[in-house]
């Protein structure tokens, strides 16, 4: 501390009290008289590594040891107006200094532990009365002008490279003053404003507006302390607003004492010394948040960030952003809150803990009134948006999908909740069924059970929904078909599958039941619960379902048992005989198609039943054809029914998948039947015969056909028949020649191979053994296989 021509050293100690205000005890531990006649006007404490105190009194600079307040010998600089030291130390225990002299000189020095070294001197236009210095340069001012001097280092030597005037005061009543804010950034005093500037004279921020013109000021992050007559004005450098005004009396000097996490300012008046201690950053942030000055609190936290304090300040920034986020969240400013949560990568568990009634997750929501419900909707909507946005980070955590589900119960429609469950139920614990039951989402409970392979429980819930056993209907249940779909898509216990199919029958869902019976059929053994015998016995009370099942069993499952095929034919017959002839055309066509395609029904039994009525002559013909009694079959179709076209089509059907000779037999039978009745219907039979003989799907022996054709037919009438006959015989001839040629070629290849084998040498000695019996060869004869292995002749005969 400084008094008139004296420098005193005091030790301040904070006393522990219960009061809200801090109490200090002060003890003087040293003092020295500077040997001058005038008061000390400026004092600076050097870097801790240097342990020096620099004083200016009576225009003389003297250097003291900060530990014992003893003079450093041989260091005394005279005619000094003011000085400044750099805020960054040089390498080792030293510091750069700049001085302003009465001879209008600007001098640079390097102060170390033992001496002060002169570096450079520069003439200036006017006497400099205030200056500030950092590693980039010097900002100084005369009574009316502000100057900047840019420093550079050449060969480890500091020098001034350039200078310029950046501002001029035209009002002599405005005191000129400057101070350093950060490295390369300064504040100069203007007409009721503080102007931020760089050494180039540029500024990136608006001027700070003073409420009163200050005489001097000093920066202590994040505040600017300005002296205005008998008052201290404190401004926040973050928002440029005045924060406090303190009466202290006339102030002579301001000294900044940096400490960890805070700065303290010593204020010297004529007869008093004040300690202006800033509140810790954390407390300042608390106060700002309490007053809902959120942006200011966040800016204050961010302003503390520096390279040396990166980890600590980052945690402070994150903590502040989190608190602001939750304040915004509570105030329903959810968009701003989500931006902050996203910026700090906030874990969703912290949001869950913050929202009342969210935990435990599997507990139901309470009944909200309208106001609370509106508030929760906004909170939970924002929460879900945040969860979905950060799904890449959160989706692997166990409660991610469970948390979304609980939020959806408030904010989403029942249909959207079901859609969410269909996609993600496997990630949700099964004990959430109570939560869904409470929301009357019974179909959702079934989906949850299904995702955890609780098949019987799933089906039981759906059955209860169908049977309306729950107090309220579930409008999200798609329908009873979902039960059949569930069975068809899974392989669960077959007895359960059979019981569900049976239950569907009881609910008059015959089509769904048939789908299950068909899809789950394995074989016709009695071990299979879905064998056709059991299903048929079950379907007897349901004739339509039985018919559909038998049709699919015959055509889809390809079951070739006579019971199934005969029963299906009898069902068709029952339906035909129970209806009038005008109503039975569709069923009759199905019966005829089945009689032609199927080979497994009991023909005699069916024929006996059909013969009991005269309405089914065509079906009788089909049965005779199935018994290979083609002549009688075609007699009925041609002579009795006179359905010539049907006879031709039936001939084509009978020829399907038969050998060439069998096809000719069937065709010639029909040909003979047509010829026998040609006199009865000459024109019609003639046209049918022409179409029959020209049908490429039916084969004939045209030599016999041409012999039997009516002799009165003209050559023009026979032209198409003769053309087909020539083509058929030509094709047959060519095919025969190709087959002979291919056979001859194959024989030649085999003869060549045989000749090569005969010419090849086969060595048989006492070391060779038979491939089959593994005994030695005692004869010169042996059998050689294509792979070159050799066996005894008798071994080869036994194996072949």
From TrEMBL:
<protein>
    <recommendedName>
        <fullName>CNH domain-containing protein</fullName>
    </recommendedName>
</protein>
<dbReference type="GO" id="GO:0034058">
    <property type="term" value="P:endosomal vesicle fusion"/>
</dbReference>
<dbReference type="InterPro" id="IPR001180">
    <property type="entry name" value="CNH_dom"/>
</dbReference>
<keyword id="KW-0653">Protein transport</keyword>
<dbReference type="GO" id="GO:0016020">
    <property type="term" value="C:membrane"/>
</dbReference>
<keyword id="KW-0963">Cytoplasm</keyword>
<dbReference type="InterPro" id="IPR019453">
    <property type="entry name" value="VPS39/TGFA1_Znf"/>
</dbReference>
<dbReference type="InterPro" id="IPR032914">
    <property type="entry name" value="Vam6/VPS39/TRAP1"/>
</dbReference>
<dbReference type="Pfam" id="PF10367">
    <property type="entry name" value="zf-Vps39_C"/>
</dbReference>
<dbReference type="Pfam" id="PF00780">
    <property type="entry name" value="CNH"/>
</dbReference>
<dbReference type="InterPro" id="IPR000547">
    <property type="entry name" value="Clathrin_H-chain/VPS_repeat"/>
</dbReference>
<dbReference type="GO" id="GO:0006914">
    <property type="term" value="P:autophagy"/>
</dbReference>
<dbReference type="GO" id="GO:0005737">
    <property type="term" value="C:cytoplasm"/>
</dbReference>
<feature type="repeat" description="CHCR">
    <location>
        <begin position="520"/>
        <end position="686"/>
    </location>
</feature>
<feature type="domain" description="CNH">
    <location>
        <begin position="1"/>
        <end position="261"/>
    </location>
</feature>
<dbReference type="GO" id="GO:0006886">
    <property type="term" value="P:intracellular protein transport"/>
</dbReference>
<keyword id="KW-0813">Transport</keyword>
């Amino acid at each position: 501390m400084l008094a008139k021509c004296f420098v005193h050293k005091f030790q301040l100690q904070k006393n522990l009290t219960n009061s809200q205000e801090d109490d200090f005890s002060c003890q003087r531990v040293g003092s020295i008289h500077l040997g001058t006649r005038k008061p000390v006007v400026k004092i600076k404490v050097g870097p801790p590594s240097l342990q020096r105190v620099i004083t200016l009194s009576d225009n003389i600079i003297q250097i003291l040891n900060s530990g014992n307040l003893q003079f450093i010998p041989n260091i005394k600089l005279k005619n000094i107006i003011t000085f400044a030291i750099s805020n960054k130390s040089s390498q080792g225990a030293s510091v750069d200094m700049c001085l302003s002299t009465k001879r209008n000189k600007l001098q640079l020095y390097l102060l170390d532990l033992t001496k002060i070294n002169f570096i450079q001197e520069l003439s200036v236009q006017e006497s400099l009365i205030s200056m500030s210095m950092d590693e980039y340069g010097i900002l100084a001012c005369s009574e009316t002008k502000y100057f900047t001097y840019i420093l550079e280092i050449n060969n480890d030597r500091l020098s001034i490279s350039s200078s310029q005037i950046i501002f001029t005061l035209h009002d002599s009543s405005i005191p000129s003053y400057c101070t350093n804010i950060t490295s390369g950034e300064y504040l100069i005093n203007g007409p009721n404003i503080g102007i931020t500037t760089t050494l180039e004279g540029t500024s990136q921020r608006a001027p700070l507006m003073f409420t009163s013109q200050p005489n001097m000021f000093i920066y202590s992050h994040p505040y600017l302390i300005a002296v205005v007559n008998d008052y201290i004005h404190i401004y926040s450098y973050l928002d440029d607003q005045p924060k406090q005004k303190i009466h202290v009396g006339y102030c002579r000097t301001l000294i900044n004492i940096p400490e960890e996490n805070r700065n303290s300012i010593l204020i010297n008046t004529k007869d008093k010394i004040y300690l202006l201690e800033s509140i810790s950053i954390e407390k300042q942030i608390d106060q700002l948040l309490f007053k809902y000055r959120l942006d200011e609190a966040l800016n204050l936290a961010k302003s503390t960030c520096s390279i040396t304090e990166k980890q600590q300040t980052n945690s402070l920034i994150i903590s502040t952003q989190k608190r602001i986020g939750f304040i915004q969240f509570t105030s329903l400013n959810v968009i701003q809150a989500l931006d902050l949560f996203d910026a700090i990568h906030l874990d969703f568990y912290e949001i869950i803990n913050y929202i009342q009634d969210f935990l435990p997750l599997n507990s139901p929501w309470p009944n909200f009134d309208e106001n609370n419900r509106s508030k929760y909707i906004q909170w939970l909507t924002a929460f879900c948006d945040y969860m979905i946005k950060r799904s890449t980070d959160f989706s692997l955590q166990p409660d991610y999908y469970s948390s979304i589900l609980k939020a959806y119960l408030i904010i989403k429609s029942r249909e959207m909740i079901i859609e969410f469950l269909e996609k993600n139920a496997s990630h949700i614990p099964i004990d959430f069924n109570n939560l869904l039951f409470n929301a009357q989402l019974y179909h959702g409970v079934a989906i949850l059970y299904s995702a955890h392979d609780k098949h019987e429980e799933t089906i039981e819930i759906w059955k209860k929904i169908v049977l309306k056993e729950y107090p309220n209907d579930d409008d999200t249940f798609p329908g009873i078909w979902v039960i059949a779909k569930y069975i068809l898509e899974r392989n669960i216990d077959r007895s359960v599958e059979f019981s569900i199919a049976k239950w569907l029958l009881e609910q008059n869902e015959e089509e769904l039941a048939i789908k299950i019976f068909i899809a789950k059929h394995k074989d016709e053994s009695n071990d299979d619960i879905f064998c056709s015998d059991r299903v048929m016995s079950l379907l007897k009370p349901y004739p339509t379902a039985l018919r559909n099942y038998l049709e699919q069993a015959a055509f889809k499952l390809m079951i070739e048992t006579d019971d199934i095929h005969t029963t299906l034919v009898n069902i068709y017959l029952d339906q035909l005989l129970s209806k009038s002839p005008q109503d039975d055309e569709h069923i009759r066509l199905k019966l005829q198609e089945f009689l032609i395609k199927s080979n497994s029904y009991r023909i005699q039994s069916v024929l006996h039943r059909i013969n009991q009525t005269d309405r089914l002559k065509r079906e009788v013909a089909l049965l005779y054809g199935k018994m290979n009694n083609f002549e009688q079959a075609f007699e009925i179709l041609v002579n009795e029914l006179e359905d010539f076209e049907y006879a031709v089509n039936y001939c084509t059907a009978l020829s399907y998948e038969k050998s060439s000779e069998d096809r000719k037999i069937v065709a010639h039978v029909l040909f003979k039947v047509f010829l026998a009745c040609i006199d009865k219907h000459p024109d019609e039979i003639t046209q049918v015969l022409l179409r029959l003989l020209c049908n490429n799907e039916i084969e004939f022996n045209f030599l016999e056909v041409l012999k039997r054709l009516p002799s009165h037919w003209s050559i023009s009438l026979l032209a198409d028949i003769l053309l087909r006959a020539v083509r058929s015989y030509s094709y047959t001839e060519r095919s025969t020649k190709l087959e002979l040629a291919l056979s001859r070629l194959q024989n030649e290849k085999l003869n060549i191979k045989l000749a090569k084998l005969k010419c090849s040498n086969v060595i048989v000695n006492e070391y060779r053994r038979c491939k089959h019996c593994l005994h030695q060869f005692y004869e010169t004869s042996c059998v050689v296989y294509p792979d070159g292995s050799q066996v005894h002749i008798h071994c080869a005969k036994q194996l072949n």
